[in-house]
Amino acid sequence: MTTSMQRDLNVSATAPVLVVGTGPSGLATALALARSGVETVLAGPPPAAPRARTAALFSGSIDLLRHLGVLAACADGSAAIKAIRLIDDTGGLLRAPEALFTAADAGLEVLGFNIPNSVLLAALETAVHAEPRIQIVTTVAVTGLETGEAQVIARLAEGGTLAARLVVAADGRQSVCRTAAGIGTHGWSYPQTAVVALVEHTRPHRNVSTELHRRPGPLTTVPLPGLASSLVWVEDTRRAEALLALDETAFRAELDRHLKGLLGPIRATTARAAFPLGVTTADRFAARRVMLVGEAGHVIPPIGAQGLNLGMRDVAMLADFVGEAVAAGGDPGAGDVLAAYDTARRGDIGTRTFAVDMLNRTLISGLLPADLLRGLGLHALNSIGPLRRAVIRQGLHPSGTRPTLMRPHGA
Ligand SMILES: Cc1cc2nc3c(=O)[nH]c(=O)nc-3n(C[C@H](O)[C@H](O)[C@H](O)COP(=O)(O)OP(=O)(O)OC[C@H]3O[C@@H](n4cnc5c(N)ncnc54)[C@H](O)[C@@H]3O)c2cc1C
């Protein structure tokens, strides 16, 4: 992976768009805008991928990566996801039936791919460097914005400023740009933490991602190439801390006990990392010439692999609205463009946040009515084919018009 963004430019004129943040959302936004014909400045530190992290990206996101010309470069280290299996391991009185959602059910060859974050970032970064419509400004941080009638001025940590008609805030969950635009957030935290690692096992995963639904939270394995998977193990926070403190042998034994031979004995695990679970949602997704993408707009727990898929839909939708405004000679930061983006993203973000929250709460509540509801839901999905197919399609992509960069190739 390229380790730094060397193409530092001194940008003095007002750019149409400034993207702040060099995570997957920021890099993909800059590329999507450039491919839509918009001259873009990208500001942030050199991209850095957290270790042992992967993202399961579903068909819409995969189509976006293909349109951006980076999918082939993501193949290395990634594995196809052909099915998702849900197993009730709550030990409740009313055990939900096992459910299997396959790509074939959705009329697809694969549901998506599990891509290491480092591979995704490297592919996006290489493409950003090769794109002449993107000017890169390496900075430790954008420290604040001054939002005005006709433009936004961004201040850089090293001194100096950048001016743009529109700022895309892709600066993550603690977004400085979101705060500077006067956008508040609402949310909550859960008494749970996700323990994350990559694991090597002895039985093939057959490209099936498995979610064990347990009282303290789901334990999910997602396929990687060969006899390997990524693990997202949600536990109550005290127990997660205990898991983190185990040596590797003891951790493997504990994991074996929970997986009950699903992937055969675990052979090795990487270092573990912990992520406390919570929800943060911006009160709006655009204001004062600033649009929010990715975790600057929404943070949800790593359950059901929805976070970055939502972020990629932000990116594709934003590229349509901004691309159209610029192509028509209009102002990309104008009120109607911001309002259209805000309205377009509300439903999708709200629905996904609600669904992930509901699943998590029905698991941890341990209440009989909640178990009954979950069990009946899964039973209906298992026995009613059209319902299952509709739910899979909805899980992969919300209904409604697909943004241009998420249309299947040739469509
Ligand atoms: C354990 C775990 C597993 C997950 N698995 C999945 C999955 O399988 N599928 C899925 O879809 N999602 C998944 N997610 C969610 C996914 O990882 C996030 O949605 C995604 O990483 C968010 O990317 P982002 O670019 O919005 O934010 P970030 O990755 O946080 O990037 C923000 C960037 O902005 C930069 N920055 C910050 N402040 C400033 C500033 N002031 N000025 C300039 N730059 C700044 C940072 O350096 C960083 O580069 C998972 C999350 C976790 C925690």
Walk me through the structure:
The structure is a single chain. With 411 residues, the chain is of the alpha+beta class. The protein has a domain at 14-81 and 117-187 and 279-406: FAD/NAD(P)-binding domain (3-Layer(bba) Sandwich). It contains 10 helices and 20 strands. The strands form 3 sheets. Strands 5, 6, 12, 13, 14, 15, 16, 17 and 20 form a 9-stranded mixed β-sheet that branches. Strands 1, 2, 8, 9, 10, 11, 18 and 19 form an 8-stranded mixed β-sheet that branches. A 3-stranded antiparallel β-sheet has the order 3-7-4. Helix 7 (307-327) runs antiparallel to helix 8 (335-365). Residues 1-10 have low confidence and may be disordered. Flavin-adenine dinucleotide (FAD) binds next to helix 1, strand 3, strand 12 and helix 7.
* Main sheet characteristics: 9 strands, mixed
CATH class of the domain at 14-81 and 117-187 and 279-406: Alpha Beta
Report the principal-axis shape. globular
Strand element count: 20
Strand content: 25-35%
**Order of secondary-structure elements:** EHEEHEEEEHEEEEHEEEEHHEEEEEHHHH
The parts where pLDDT drops under 50 for at least 5 residues are 1-10
- Given the helix and strand composition, which structural class is it? alpha+beta
CATH architecture of the domain at 14-81 and 117-187 and 279-406: 3-Layer(bba) Sandwich
CATH topology of the domain at 14-81 and 117-187 and 279-406: FAD/NAD(P)-binding domain
**Count of DSSP-assigned helices:** 10
| Radius of gyration, taken over Cα atoms and rounded to an integer in Å | 21 Å
Instruction: Give the helix proportion (percent range).
Output: 25-40%
Mean residue pLDDT? 90
Query: CATH superfamily of the domain at 14-81 and 117-187 and 279-406, please?
Result: FAD/NAD(P)-binding domain
> What ligand species are in this complex?
flavin-adenine dinucleotide
N-end to C-end Cα span: 33 Å
